[in-house]
Amino acid sequence: MNKRYVFLFLLFITTTFHVKAQPFMTLEDMPYVGYEHVVATQTNPSVDIGIASATEQTWDFSNLQASAYDTVRFVDPAITPAGVSFPSSNMARSGSLPSLLGIGLGDLIPLPLDLFPGTAYYTKNADGKIYNNGVFTNINIPGLIDLGEQNLAADPADLFLAPLAFNESISNQGQFELVYNLENDTLPIPIPVTLRVSLNKTITADAYGNLQLPDETYSVLRYNEDIVADIFVGVEVFGIPIQSFVDTTINFNIFRFLSKGQNYPVATVTISPDGTGEPSPLSIEYFDELGPIAASFDFTTSCLTGYFTNNSANALAYNWNFGDGSAGSSAASPSYQFTQPGTYSVTLQAFGVNGTVATQTQEVTVDYCSGIDATSANEVNIYPSITTGLVQINAPNLLPNCTLSV
After folding, report:
1. Which of 54, 107, 192, 404 is 20 to 30 A from 259, alpha carbon to alpha carbon?
2. CA 170/CA 224 separation, integer angstroms
3. What is the DSSP letter of 5?
4. What are phi and psi of 91, to 5 degrees?
5. Strands 217-237 and 403-405, how do they pair?
6. Helix (H, G, I), strand (E, B), or coil: what is residue 16?
7. What DSSP character marks residue 77?
8. CA separation for the pair 320, 312 (Å, rounded)
């Protein structure tokens, strides 16, 4: 056939049928040690995750509004606090526990994510498959539970990411487990409480197209993770459940949108589990550019306690100095009880990307509650100091001409 006719035939095919190669992810598209990118999160976003399809589609997520920012940073485990506890790992990153486990909880568990900081440890094999070996975390919910520093180990490891082409699938069974010795004054011996999450996961590259985010549009391959999670919290003896506090199974989906050369999902959407009504997006983590950083806060006081509301913009982390020589706080919006009345210079530092810092300082005045001064507070007498019978409370400045007997 004449070369001219061959060229015209190929031109006709490509212009008529708009042939476009379906994207695929390779080893080079997976995260690596040294990788770093800013991500934003939004709870309960109004987004349509589309359908599984062999036809190119468009996802419009351009109206997202970030509620928080974080930095995804993969490092050498040797420089992390618990690297020796996960010797098979060759990558690690720090962040909030839900993000490290690859999920977003949204309003399913309405607790601040900064209550669950941690470091996740991964193994990336020669094929580019990345497995989560476990998480070093400090689980502390003030007034409810404080487990301290713990290793939430995974055995077998949980598959996090893998190179896939469109219509390919990969399955994995992973399990995270933590055994905590519960002790208090009423227990004769410590009781080992087991927390175990078993994950049966199938990841399918089931759609592709263009994803529009607030700052950029990406050509993406969508990964659909179908996850069955068996959750157990209770007491076991030699692996046999004796008492269960939680023993349930939930099924949910996570959709990750990967783009060649980005080395991390440009967006991750967690869908609410079955049984919670019509499945809907619980949260989204996505690539977003931070604007100029600014530090700002409001406050109210009650007696000696200050309540601080953080209004900073585009910050990744915070440091509070309460002006009284204490250790301060890294919480976003802390409350703080001063030990003495007075006026204190409270400073908020807001940290952004690339080492940028913004600062605001305000004068905060606190005092004893109305009607109680330092003299009154110090003139409460309880006697006798050791007794199994009658106790008398004498507070002449608080309760004139009155002695309470209890």
Report:
1. 107
2. 11
3. H
4. -145, 155
5. unpaired
6. helix
7. G
8. 13
Q: What is the mean pLDDT of the chain?
A: 82
pLDDT on residue 392: 57
Report the distance separating Cα 31 and Cα 23, nearest Å.
Answer: 18
Q: 279 burial class (0-12, 13-18, 19+ CB within 10 angstroms)? A: middle
DSSP for residue 87: T
Closest CA to 43 of 269, 227, 226: 269
- CB burial string 1-14: b at 16+ within 10 A, e below: eeeeeeeeeeeeee
Out of 95-99, 144-148, 344-348, pick the least confident.
144-148
Nearest residue to 204 via CA among 175, 256, 162, 168: 168
Place of tokens 């004139």: 400
Give the pair of three-digit tokens for residue 197.
């999450």
Q: In DSSP terms, which residues pair with 301 in a beta bridge?
A: 306
Task: Read off the amino acid at residue 109.
Answer: I
Instruction: Tell me how far apart the alpha carbons of residues 130 and 37 are, in angstroms, rounded to a whole number.
Output: 18
Query: In Å, how far are 253, 297, 320, 321 from 347, measured between CA atoms?
Result: 42, 9, 6, 5
In whole angstroms, give the CA distance from residue 98 to residue 104.
6
Residue 396: is the preceding peptide bond cis (ω within 30°)?
A: no
- CA dist 356 and 294 (Å) reads 10
* CA dist list (Å): 363 to 107, 342, 346, 352: 35, 10, 6, 24
Question: Domains in the chain, ordered, with CATH?
Answer: 22-287 (no CATH), 297-366 (2.60.40.10), 379-405 (no CATH)
Handedness of CA 163, 126, 270, 283 (dihedral sign): negative
pLDDT at 269 over 90: yes
Q: How far apart are the C-alpha atoms of 394 and 86, rounded to whole Å?
A: 59
Strands 305-310 and 281-287: unpaired
Half-sphere exposure of 391 (CA within 13 A, CB side): 9
Phi and psi at residue 29, in whole multiples of 5°?
A: -95, 0
pLDDT value for 279: 77
